[in-house]
Amino acid sequence: MSAPELDPLFDPESVAVVGASPDSFYSGNLVENLLEYGFDGTLYPVNPGRDEVWDRQCYDHISDIPETVDLAVVSVPREHVVDVVKSAGERGVPVALVLTAGFAEADDTGTDLEAQLAATATEAGIQVVGPNCIGVMASEGATLTATCSREPQPGGIGLVSQSGALAFTTFFERAADSDVHFSHIVSTGNEVDLTAADYVAYLAELDDVDVVCTYIEGIDDPERFLRVAENAVRNGTPVLTVKIGSSELAEAATLSHTGSLTGDDDAWTAAFNQAGVERVPDIPDLLARASAHTAYGNPDRDRVCIASTSGGLASLLADMAAERDLSLPDIDGETEQQLLNIEELLTYGGFNNPADIRGYGAHVLPEIADAVLDDDAFDAYVFAIGLPGVDERAETIADDLATIASEADDPVYVLWTGRKESDDPTATPPYARLRESLPVYEDPSRCLDALASTGDFVTAQTRLTNQPSRTDLVADARKNATNVDLPRGQVLTWQESERLLNVYDIPVVETRLATDVQEAVAAAEDIGFPVVLKIDSPALPHRTDVGAVELGIDSAEAVRAAYEDVMDAALAAIDEDDIEGVLVQPVVDDGVEAITGIAPDEVFGSLVSVGPGGVLVEALDESATLVPPFSRADARAAVEETALASLLRNRREGDALSVDAIVDFLIRIGELAAGVDTVAELDLNPVVVTEHGPVAVDALVRTRE
């Protein structure tokens, strides 16, 4: 998880631009931006076709430069990139920024060149950014990109983007339009060497980075990314991400109900949650939430006071706060009396929270602030202004809000929903001037999302601090892994499945295997009626579908008939040689049915899911996903996320059942998933949670080839 040394990339004292030419869009504009935006180091153009560019000597080769530079920018035809990077590495250059495209994203030749570039980076001992990279920026360092249309201003947001165009033309430009600024931006390109995880690790350790934002398309080593992100959150740096691909479903073919419950996007959401990463829907949301993390400290709790100039807006904000689990304590006591004493508010009766201060309240914002800011019942404040932000009255409102926010001990959020377009396009309107000193939100949902994000970070950091790190969980999983000898590439018999589950102390219902009617009767009488009979055959994983299961059998005579029925049903679908026998089990019906198991995943290897089981799998169509290994807190959160926890606590018949017991059960499933690579999928449906604990009454296990 150690962070790479990337100061030479973001704040180099000397830069060589190989392929430098004023006629090149990428290298030419990069040099123009580098010089125009305050680079005070030494620039060495390298281009054998020119003697001089930008009033500087142009060198034929990087080896001709009189010093070892901090950074080599490479913008040459793709067939020359490997040689340039090799020469830079041999010269001792620590980092190469490769702008050139046409590698693995292009064709087979590009794929071969990218493999050569990766090998060269390792052999030459040089860190490589890209290729196919649009550049990087540090507001207090160097701007090394062709697509930055204005000089970066100092900010507290670090951005790691797997899309180069979005990084600068969308993230940077849109943020700058709203007076939101970045400390660093990096477009990662094809990540032949340095990866998104490397940049997150580096940025999270910098004092001038308040929050790390990421735009993720795909990650080759998701486990390392999760560990790095978790480490950042543990150490006090929020990590927010936009992850595209939510419409994609898992491609792995699965036999189990468990596998059908989980898609790729569920896996990413679970992984981010477990690592403390906040997943954000889109770019405007990312910028809105990031700006809150840069402007405000972490709240003590989630108690919010909202004052709105519009009653309708106040009601809307109340609903939105509830959706985000934000608390709105009553405005009462001395605080309410102070507000009632403000004549301009024309209030009768009392105040709710959100408080409707009407439009008149905009004239007395300092008096309102004096009343509410001293109340220890609140941790954050929202002033919602449903008035124009561009007229003379807005001048006073903006000045008052700036003073209130600067003098408050707690975060003060400004939501300004009124008119933003001024009659004088050359003038800076009041709301925009206010935005230069603190975030000004225009959308109610984004304002409350931003506020909630700061509280969610505190919750995530606290949770992670109080549980083992992901690194420790992985180490424990490897240490506790059991060498279970399983047949490869097949569905297991019941006895094989039971042996596997017993290794991980996963309780299963008492089961006897009968190969004839007499054995079935004897087993049923020994177990005690009523019993269940079901076919045991790896060739028939879904025996219920063909009627090869009989329930509630209450006599020896009924066992004989049921045995023949399930055998006949099975033989109508499969060969007799594929049948192991008939399983005899007691009826377990005094409890709540759950489903849990393991499903294959192309990114994370395996996923674990949990939810209501039995007929409720289809009826409720809800489950929670976990990426193993996971902590007990993660397991509990997954159970609580579904209706299963409520079903256990609020039984129509009988006392409440233990949520802790199914959490323990789920932990063992996670240990199996992390410890036995040969298990491709496991379906335990149903698991019946009884007063004595959970017990699996059916199991389907498929192993990898």
Q: What features would you describe in this structure?
A:
- It holds the Pfam family CoA_binding_2.
- Keywords: ATP-binding, Ligase, Nucleotide-binding.
- It is an enzyme of class 6 (ligase).
- One of its GO terms (molecular function) is metal ion binding.
- Its EC number is 6.2.1.13.
- With 705 residues, the chain is α/β, with parallel strands linked by helices.
- It folds into 4 domains: 288 residues, Succinyl-CoA synthetase domains (Rossmann fold); 161 residues, Succinyl-CoA synthetase domains (Rossmann fold, 3-Layer(aba) Sandwich), CATH 3.40.50.261; 77 residues, ATP-grasp fold, A domain (Dna Ligase, domain 1, 2-Layer Sandwich); 112 residues, ATP-grasp fold, B domain (D-amino Acid Aminotransferase, Chain A, domain 1).
- Helix content is 39%, strand content 19%.
- Strands 9-8-11-10-12-13-14 form a 7-stranded mixed β-sheet, sandwiched between helices.
- The longest helix is centred in the middle third of the chain and has 22 residues.
- The radius of gyration is 32 Å and the shape is flat.
- About 2% of the residues have low confidence.
Keywords:
EC 6.2.1.13; Rossmann fold; Dna Ligase, domain 1; 4 domains; ligase; ATP binding; alpha/beta
Tell me the name of the CATH class of the largest domain: Alpha Beta
Strand order of the largest sheet: 9-8-11-10-12-13-14
What is the overall shape?
A: flat
Count of individual beta strands:
29
Count of DSSP H/I helices: 24
Alpha-carbon distance between the two ends: 32 Å
Number of domains: 4
Structural class: alpha/beta
How would you name the oligomeric state of the polypeptide chains in this document? single chain
Give the integer mean of the pLDDT values. 93
Task: From the alpha carbons, calculate the radius of gyration and give it in angstroms.
Answer: 32 Å
Q: What is the beta-strand fraction?
A: 15-25%
CATH topology name of the largest domain, in short, is Rossmann fold
**Which consecutive residue ranges, at least 5 long each, have pLDDT under 50?**
248-254, 256-262
CATH superfamily membership of the largest domain = Succinyl-CoA synthetase domains
What's the main sheet like?
Answer: 7 strands, mixed
Corresponding CATH architecture of the largest domain: 3-Layer(aba) Sandwich
- Helix content range: 25-40%
EC number: 6.2.1.13
GO molecular function, one term: ATP binding
Keywords: ATP-binding, Ligase, Nucleotide-binding
Domain ATP-grasp: 498-534
